[in-house]
Amino acid sequence: MTVNVTRRQFFKLGAAGVASSSMAMMGFAPESAEASVRQFKLTHAKETRNNCTYCSVGCGVLIYSHGDGSKNARQEVFHIEGDPDHPVSRGSLCPKGSGLLDFVRSEGRLEYPQVRAPGSSEWKRVSWDEALNKIARYIKDDRDANFVERDEKGGTVNHWTTTGFLAASGSSNEAGYITHKVVRNLGMVAFDNQARV
Amino acid sequence: MTNHWVDIRNANLILSMGGNSAEAHPVGFRWVTEAIEHNKAKLICIDPRYTRTCAVADYKAFIRTGTDITFLGGLIHYLITTDQVQHEYVLNYTDASLIVHDDYGFEDGIFTGYNPDKHTYDDKSSWMYKLGDDGFALRDESLKDPRCVYQLMREHYSRYDIDTVSSICGMPREHIEHIWAEIGKMAVPHKTMTMLYALGWTQHSIGSQIIRTAAMVQLLLGNMGMPGGGVNALRGHSNIQGLTDLGLLSQLLPGYMTLANAAEQDYPAYIKKRAKQPILEGEVSYWKNYEKFHVSLMKSWFGNAATEENNWCFDWLPKLSRPLYDVLDTFDRMYKGEINGYFCQGFNPLASFPNRQKVTEGLSKLKYLVVMDPLNTETSEFWKNYGEYNDVDSSQIQTEVIRLPTTCFAEDDGSIVNSARWLQWHWAAAPGPGEARPDTRIMGDLFIRIRELYRQEGGVFPDPILNLDWDYNIPEAPSSEELAQEYNGRALVDLTDDNGNVTRKAGELLSSFSEMTADGRTASGCWIFSGAWTQDGNQMARRDNSDPYGTGNTLGWAWAWPANRRVLYNRASADTQGRPWGKEKAFVWWSSEQGRWIGADVPDFPLTSEPSKGVSPFIMQTTGGGNFFAGQSMVDGPFPEHYEPYESPIDNNPLHPNNPLARNNPAGRIFDKDRADLGSREEFPHAATTYRLTEHFHYWTKHARLNAVVQPEQFVEISHQLAEEVGVVAGDWVKVSSNRGFIKAVAVVTKRLQPLRIGDRDVHHVGIPIHWGFTGVAKKGYLANALTPVVGDANTQTPEYKSFIVKVEKA
User: Fold this and answer.
1) Entry pTM
2) What is the distance in angstroms between the CA of the first residue and the CA of the last residue of chain B?
3) Most CB contacts within 10 A, which of A60, A85, A147, B39?
4) Which chain A residues are closer than 8 Å to B298 by Cβ?
5) In the record, which residues are listed under signal peptide (chain A) (predicted)?
């Protein structure tokens, strides 16, 4: 049987001249330390390496999220900080990057495909299938109607100029690469990204 | 950047001009302060405003917006007349000694070959070097020939004397003298200046030529290819470098290759024009390998359908019938009702493009608009009435808008390229909200649906769609790993050396673009990214931050294009004998023991080409040198010349006061409607410039609570003198108007702006931060692009957001 003492009493007793280790052997054990020393809150988080999404310094960031990766357990980002190993940023983030968490969790984030009909003042939620089928149909109809195989001089041009595309310089290389592969081979030439402005 | 962020610490002098890195790239700027504290470097800051970069600078000066070529051209004049030039470098590593074509000339602001009716130089045949009978350029190594590049450059900038510079830039003589003297000290071989710039140089009708002038200064000082040197573009978005590298621009293909124009019907001629041969004997001229990169791209896109017999599907690629289909052209056609559909993938053109009213009218004429974005952007709701901030009648707008939610950086795997050309791999930390999907999946799924429609229904020219190589594990959702390996490239059959030994097995990933062939045996979606994901795995995910030479070069961290080089042209960091220019600048040098180039970086040079062979360091150039004379590579002249912004607070170009054709860039990008929309300085007397704040990122962070809290409300900055003229005090509301629209904002009255003396009058600057709009959690505000003109740089078509004219009234 142990005698209950608080941590404060335990250290006081120790300071009174009796070696605390021998007190523990005598049955005086302190209560669990949880009440006074807070658990490191990132201990059970998943740590993910990433880079800041704003300017082109490319600061390293560590993203902390909850969720163990189980199929039906949703992960959620709850903390972002600088990566101290990164040779450029060495753990720092600027006033923009310090707000990354609020960007990820912004109330302005879009969650569902939506359509705004001609003349309407409202959005209507649609399924991904409905949205993508509608877009594929628009693309095919406009391309088939306006694709130019030969110009007035009889030269092969094989381009489609009545639909344009702006790509995102905030997206990854892999998104950029596949976007280029698809868009260019539909024959599109009115194609740019933020580098133009 | 020719160099990289950490390398800034190696500089002896830092010129910040056309940028404000302390506020726009704060963490990168720490390497500026590192150079100041530990390398005894000095910082010079030149800007129309007193910024936080200026606040820590040793020398600072105000400059009138849009006059940077004048300042830098004057600097060239000063360096040449005072002979503060790195002579061995200029003679051996540049085109200074080459003789220019007899017909080249420049008269009263106009270069030879100008067509005033078309506002273009349509005959650039004289913009080249004079070639000898052997086909190589003639040269005069004494640099005395009046037709050599050095003498033509000296003559061109002889007009840029200090009084002219002072009166055009609005900068007092003593500031100019002091700054030029400091820069002149960097002409010694073992000292370097680095130049840092951003949109403050690009967003002008003469933007590309401002940057060229900067490069010319750096060549004169021998600062290119040197640690702590270079011309360093501090780019704006996290992957704007990558999207540029991957060629997502109207006239480009991946890796800075270009689409054919309609006149280029012949495949061999198309290649020959781009596979540039050296114009000096023995030089590398690496673009001579163009066809290897092009054919490898076609094999990545079309697989077995691309064959030698069909010219590797050359005719399947779209050809350009007009010079450019850039966004200014596209929104002009949209405004005229010539565009039916438009896609905005993570792009907010209503806020980002000039003359917001014209953009709204254009979008309203579309049949369909597709927006893919993580955020609720203004563009996606351009049809919705937000009172004074977006005063539209929804019922009159017949555009169908489809909005797709995408994941953001924290929710996908992949790589992004920072300003230093580093490809850094990142991982998803969580799925996106709701039903948000990654762009890779959206584009994959959409393509499969389009292909299915063509399979079922047939349609116009379906060949490139039906034959697009699409060998992904899940066709609707190609993985980032698959796509990264595709742009890296692989061998399609066993590759062999000259003796028939297999050097790369079929199916293996390439280790470098040097393995590519022009006969269809290799595939690669972006040749400059080759080496990013090799048989040794994902090089972009490497995390060794060691710096064995103490130069700040961490070759084991991530991967940089090309070939993991961190400083471009680094052969130039050694003298003609292959020795470092100075002990503290040792970077890449020749080792006679090893018979190869060695050092802290991957040499940007043929590895075993010994110095005595005399091959020059700029291996992508046909001359092998850094070029003072741009030849035909620019559309608006081989030497940069000052022209006024299209909207200028002064009446003429002081360099050519009697030639109205030379008031503004004679080859600038402007359409008829937009020329009519320019204002007069009588009605709009003040210079205006847009800019960014350290607390915000474009139009994104007004959606993030922390950033919205620290900078919640729209404001403009004006000087005390202008405030007094207008009759407002700090905190009053003002209305700022151009000939295209207006905004209302709180006036911040500040000493950070000062009237500048231009000729015989004082010119005020109005500072306009851009970050507000009608969506987000910050206070609603006016889109600043209500004010800006639709005028583009002659070479890049980048809009002139940094220089236009406005009036200011009490609101």
Assistant:
1) 0.95
2) 43
3) A60
4) none
5) 1-24
